[in-house]
Amino acid sequence: MKKFIHKGFTLVELMVALAVSSFLMAGITFVYIALSESVDTSKELENAQEVLRYSSEVFTRSLKQTKSLPTIPNATSLVVQQETEGATACNSTKPAVPFSETFTLVDSQLRCQVNAEAEQVLLTGLEGISYRLNGDLVEITLTPESLNVDMLANGFQIDVALSGKILEEALN
């Protein structure tokens, strides 16, 4: 009697192993794609948060220390007159009083110009910006660049009260 010795796998075993490994690879690929998209969205939100934080800081400092109503010469510009002694300008200097700050959006960059000095780039990563005066409140709508989250497509609104102007009017 001869014993039959198996050396290798049958065709059916190989096909079953190939099908199982294909399903596993497809599952791993889908998980990787979902994780990659999640990381990209997280990075976009992190960048948008930083743009909003810094924009809010700059506009709040400038608008709270002014004693006059800012002007909006066009859709992407805001001019703030500063008459407060020791006021800090948008470029972090403390120029002689009075001075004006002009905020503009050019090529996804928020820029600032103090008086007739050269413009400085404050931050990059803005797709759009708009300003609106509502009494003693300035409403600033910012749209961060490359933010693909549908519910945030209209941008973020920052409301800044003109505290210096309000106090000046209350004291006079």
What does this structure look like?
There is one protein chain. This protein has 172 residues and is α+β, with helices and mostly antiparallel strands. The chain has one domain (28-171). 37% of the residues lie in helices and 28% in strands. It has two helices and seven strands; from the N terminus they run αβββββββα. The chain has helices spanning 11-65, 163-171, and strands at 77-82, 99-106, 109-114, 120-124, 126-134, 137-144, 156-161. The strands form two sheets. The chain has a four-stranded antiparallel sheet with strand order 1-2-3-4, covered by helices on one side. The model has no long low-confidence stretch (mean pLDDT 87). InterPro entries: N_methyl_site, Pilin-like. Keywords: Membrane, Transmembrane, Transmembrane helix. This is Prepilin-type N-terminal cleavage/methylation domain-containing protein.
Major sheet summary line: 4 strands, antiparallel
User: What is the mean pLDDT?
Assistant: 87
Q: Rg from C-alpha positions?
A: 29 Å
Contiguous runs where pLDDT drops below 50 for at least 5 residues: none
Please tell me the total number of domains.
1
Give the neighbour order of strands across the main sheet: 1-2-3-4
Distance separating the two termini = 118 Å
- The multimeric state of the shown protein is single chain
Task: Report the strand count.
Answer: 7
Which class of secondary structure composition applies to the elements? alpha+beta
Helix proportion range: 25-40%
Q: What is the 3D shape? A: rod-shaped
Indicate the proportion of strand residues: 25-35%
| Helix and strand element order | HEEEEEEEH
Number of helices: 2
